[in-house]
Amino acid sequence: MTRDPVLIFTDKGIYCPAGDFYIDPWRPVNRALITHGHADHARPGHARYLATGIAAPVMRHRLGDISIETVPYGAKLTLGMATVSFHPAGHVPGSAQIRVEVGGEIWVVSGDYKLEDDGLSTPFEPVRCHAFVTESTFGLPVFRWRPQAQVGAEINAWWRSSLAEGRTPMLGAYALGKAQRLLSLLDTGIGPVLTHGAVENTNRVMRSQGITLPDTVPVTADTRIADHPGALVLATPSAFGSAWARKFGKLSTGFASGWMQLRGVRRRRAADRGFVISDHADWDGLNRAIKESQAENIYVTHGYTDIFTRWLNTQDLEAHVVPTEFDGETLDEAEA
Amino acid sequence: MKEFARLFTRIDQSTKTNVKVAALAAYFASAPEADRLWTVALFSGRRPKRAVTTTRLREWAAEAAGYPLWLFEEAYPIVGDLAETIALFLPPAQTDSDHGLTHWINMLRGLSEVEEPRRKLAVLAAWDELDATSRFLFNKLITGGFRIGISQKLMTRALAQATGKDEAELAHRLMGDWSPDTTTYNALIEAEVPGADASRPYPFYLAYGLEDAPETLGAPNAWRAEWKWDGIRGQLILRGGTHYVWSRGEELMTDRFPELARALDFLPDGTVLDGEILAWDGAPMPFNALQKRIGRKSVPKSLLRAAPVILYAYDLLEDAGADLRALPFGMRRARLQALLADLPKDAPVRLSPQLPFEDWATLALARSTAREVRAEGLMLKRADSPYLAGRKKGDWWKWKLDPLTIDAVMIYAQQGQGRRANLFTDFTFAVWQGNELIPFTKAYSGLTDAEFRQITAWVRKNTQHRFGPVRQVTPAHVFEIAFEGIHESPRHKSGVALRFPRMSRWRQDKPVQEANTLEDLKEMLRSFG
Fold first, then answer.
1. Cβ neighbours, 10 Å, residue A270
2. Which of A251, A257, A263, A304 to mutate to test the interface with B (most CBs of B within 10 A)?
3. Using CB atoms within 10 A of its CB, is residue A5 exposed (0-12), middle (13-18) or buried (19+)?
4. For A148-275, which CATH class?
5. Distances in Å between the alpha carbon of B488 and those of A216, A335, B526?
6. Using the 8-state DSSP alphabet, how is residue B517 labeled?
7. Does the beta carbon of A229 lie under 8 angstroms from any beta carbon of chain B?
8. Which long-range contacts (C-beta less than 8 Å, at least 24 apart) are formed by A331-336?
9. Is pLDDT of A295 > 60?
10. A8-142+280-321 has CATH 3.30.230.10 classification
């Protein structure tokens, strides 16, 4: 007897025939299970959403009036013939790997994940499965992260030296996840942290759901840098070079991203400093997560899919490239 | 290496020129003399002889990291730099080292003497005791191309700050045929022995392109005009009974142009000429005749006959052993004319003529005929200008012809390297022949970073086939390709080769059907080739 695979890869996204739902679909569908709130995973237009209770507030904030059900980590739901549960992915607060079990066969869709405990997100937990759908954003051995405390110390040292040179440090990072993680690493004994609107909106959502973040000073039209001596400005990369950025006087600019590992990217961004810190697993992290899943079949998506798949196949795993409409967080988007 | 690595980090972490120069000046003031000398050498394009091939480096790096070679080869184009790929690909160093820059350079130089197994052990051991930045720099010492955001000009400025010496004097001292083996820091930079090195050229004075109308330069009678030739800018030095030929890129090219040796028969010792090296058959030949001579260190007789060269001289920098650079151009030119006045027709040095003109309109008319004499346009030089060092604005201008242009369809794309790694920046363009697109040129430059990002995203989504790193894309985009010249080329399918092709405009307004045809290109070949 043949039966459908647990999950199939369609032009709308990952689909579960037994449960009649999609995971992180990129075209409007009736039922969407969402791993986390980043725009390439949580897209607008679905009739019904399902996500973790921690991920939901940010999704509501970003997608507006959506119909969303929530589920705690680890709770089992029955959707049609499928049993579904969400497990911590450690990527951003509320992010999940989605486990789907049909007739005893278990598939896990990782979404985006990292193994290091960032102190804000529920730490990644390996989930045993038969088939593991993994991202591969940094699926090359040249990407290896140092512990975040070391990077945090580097950023704080830059904050201090920028002030000593009479410059305001402006740190660029994604508004959702990375910005809050950096915030938790900053030494607010040095000075206040001024935040760009996009960052502060996410801060506000997270604070209201009980996530503790250091105090910040939202930048408004009336904000004057002279009133906030010693301040660091935390902004989205899009704010760099804008009229908004000019009100802070002489700047020292920094970006925080895994791509900053590459000197070519650092130079192209023309920022003064690049800090290597990512919410995605590095090379060793990807390999460890795959090993700990004990899966025999690996489906590789989002990133260096071809190369990483070939690598896994040399490791006696059955690995396949998942075609996707989006390259995930590619270099180009990271820089846009 | 740590001090040098700190210097590199400070340079690399800043986008501000004055910060880089200050960091380098501080290093020159404090580093050991031997390290200083090597730093000057590295930033002026001198490097230790390559002790290990890049093929071996890749193999050893993959092996040391415990990964298959193909994985390294995949990572390399993404990182975009071999030295950096190795530094990142290897696991973190296990031990630590306090050795300085000179130690590592000497170690590398010693490697060319030993057998490969020992060479390999030495390189692997070095990788295992250098931190990531030092490891990157160590690899750069092997692979060469020490381009890390410090030009020779900036290095010279930093040296001037550190020593209190004049920048132009230092620029002159750093020219010529020296290496850390033949000199010391003190002899090169500090010692008061001017002109010790007979081969040493003067720093070239380089012009900027004229972007405004020539009327903005003021009264025409303050200016002199000559053709701007399409050859190799060169300096011919006759000193101590021998001769030296330097290219503008500071390459000693004496042996490549043996014809110029005969200059010694006609011109006195203590003469330095600035001019254009051109292939010459009674008049300048097309650049591709000269091109055949450039890549060759020794020249076969047949080529000497087919593409003989001369120096078309336009300035006199040294006469009877005296440095003339401070004299006004008009006076230098008069002495140059006198010096070359009685040379026989077959002498390898000739005088590049000046173009008389009364007003800018006359000169503009002359400029429009530049292609007929195989010139790229005009040079405008202020009659009272001294011969400065480096690229300076104000007294000398290039007034080039507008380039030729053709609208072409992009058909292949390839990622760039270094700063352009991960961006599709290298494109192949085609023109129509009936319903077929015939490739005729590649181009790499002319777009903004934002445009490159836009086209990169498009290439990713519109790849039809992959041939290794090359992607065949849907023919959908038309670019205006600008170029300086066009030549017949049997090696190319299109039958033509372009000079200095680049993308001058992305014609997003133009459908692919309206791109130019091969016949249009051939017509240009007939008119301008």
1. 11
2. A263
3. middle
4. alpha beta
5. 67, 42, 9
6. B
7. no
8. A331/A259, A331/A265, A331/B422, A332/B422, A332/B423, A332/B453, A332/B456, A332/B457, A332/B460, A334/A257, A334/A259, A334/A265, A335/A237, A335/A259, A335/A265, A335/A268, A335/A269, A335/B453, A336/B453
9. yes
10. no
The confidence score (pLDDT) of residue B196 equals: 54
Q: What is the pLDDT of residues A126-164, one digit of tens each?
A: 999 999 999 999 999 999 999 999 999 999 999 999 999
Helix residue spans in B238-300 (DSSP H):
263-266, 287-294
Most confident of the ranges B220-229, B368-377, B509-518: B220-229
Strands B375-382 and A68-71: unpaired
Q: At what angle do helices A178-185 and A148-164 cross, to 10 degrees?
A: 70
Minimal C-alpha gap between A229 and chain B (Å): 24
Chain B residues 429-488 with CB within 8 Å of chain A: 449, 453, 456-457, 460
Decide if B88 touches A, using CB distance below 8 A. yes
Euclidean distance between CA atoms A107 and A115, whole angstroms: 19
Q: What percent of chain A has pLDDT over 90?
A: 85
Least confident piece of the model among A47-51, A72-76, B119-123, B444-448: B444-448
How far, in Å, CA of B121 to CA of B60, rounded? 10
| Test mutation, B78, B89, B135, chain A, max A CBs within 10 A | B78
Whole-number pLDDT of residue A326:
53
For B87, residues 6+ apart whose C-beta sits below 8 A from its C-beta are B132, B133, B135, B136, B139
* Contact check, Cβ <8 Å, A264/B457: no
Kindly list the distances between the CA atom of residue A15 and the CA atoms of A4, A133, B392, in Å, as whole numbers in the listed order.
11, 12, 64
Buried b (16+ CB within 10 A) or exposed e, B461-488: ebeeeeeeeebebebebbbbbbbbbbbe
* Structure confidence by residue, pLDDT tens digits, A258-272: 999 998 888 777 788
Q: Is the pLDDT of residue A328 over 80?
A: no
Q: Does B12 touch chain A (CB under 8 A)?
A: yes
Q: Does the pLDDT at position B409 exceed 90?
A: yes
Contacts of B171 (CB under 8 A, 6+ apart): B153, B156, B203, B389, B390
In chain B, the domains with their CATH numbers are: 2-142 (1.10.3260.10), 205-400 (3.30.470.30), 404-528 (2.40.50.140)
Tell me whether residues A264 and B149 touch, CB distance under 8 A: no
Examine the pLDDT at B104 and tell me if it is beyond 70: yes
**For position B193, what pLDDT does the model report?**
61
Alpha-carbon span B87 to B105, nearest angstrom: 17
Residues of chain A with CATH 3.60.15.10: 8-142+280-321
Cβ neighbours of residue A162 under 8 Å, at least 6 residues apart?
A168, A169, A252
Model confidence at A173: pLDDT above 60 = yes
Q: Which helix (H) or strand (E) holds B318?
A: strand B309-319
pLDDT for B191? 82
The count of other CB atoms within 10 Å of the CB of residue A65 is: 6
Q: What percent of chain B has pLDDT over 90?
A: 61
Helices (H), B217-340: 263-266, 287-294, 301-306, 329-340
The pLDDT value given to residue A324: 65
pLDDT digits (tens, 9 = 90+) for B18-59: 889 999 999 999 999 999 999 999 998 888 888 899 999 999
Is the ipTM beyond the 0.95 threshold?
Answer: no
CA of B128 vs chain A CAs: smallest distance (Å): 16
pLDDT at B475 over 90: yes
Helix (H, G, I), strand (E, B) or coil at B309: strand
∠ Cα A145 A147 A149 (to 5°): 135
What pTM, to 2 d.p., does this model score? 0.77
